[in-house]
Write a structure and sequence with these properties.
This protein has helices at 13-16, 19-29, 43-46, 51-78, 92-102, 117-123, 126-133, and strands spanning 4-8, 32-39, 83-89, 107-112, 138-142. By secondary structure, it is an alpha/beta fold. Helix 5 packs parallel to helix 7 (126-133). 23% of the residues are buried.
């Protein structure tokens, strides 16, 4: 039933909380884990003040994301999981939904950061936007805390 599982990760331990669940599902289904990291575009913050600084910020973010996602991928592969990675830049929820459609995944497995009250209102909920706009199943794991 599940051949491809999209797992968005942002570098936080909260986001990684979904990994045991995604691994269990992948193991039981023989599915591929597709790890996704989405970076914001720091060029928008610096483009008008210092284009050189914008390029440097983009490169630093790409380097950090690449190192992070490669380490997680290596751990999963050493445990016997079929794994691939995707690195994208853009609006996080939109990118998650776009990649899910592009790669024709069967389920999106992600953690929710568990924000409530003003924090949720101000920051929004990526998980909520993904659930509301996804045409495929979404497995949400609530953050511990």
């Amino acid at each position: 039933m599940y051949r491809k599982i999209l797992v968005p990760l942002d570098g936080s331990k909260v986001a990684e909380g979904v990994l045991p669940h995604a691994k269990s599902l992948a193991y039981s289904e023989g599915a591929e884990l597709i790890l996704l990291t989405v970076g914001a575009n720091p060029a928008l913050d610096y483009a008008f003040s210092d284009p050189g600084l914008a390029q440097q910020a983009i490169q630093e973010q790409e380097d950090r994301s690449s190192k992070y996602i490669t380490e997680i991928e290596a751990q999963l592969k050493s445990a016997g999981f079929k794994t691939s990675t995707q690195m994208r830049v853009g609006s996080v929820a939109d990118v998650i939904l776009g990649v899910a459609e592009e790669l024709q995944v069967d389920v999106i497995a992600m953690s929710t950061h568990g924000r409530t009250g003003p924090a949720r209102w101000l920051l929004g909920s990526i998980a909520e936007r993904v659930v509301r706009n996804s045409n495929i199943p979404v497995l949400l794991i609530r953050a511990k805390g």
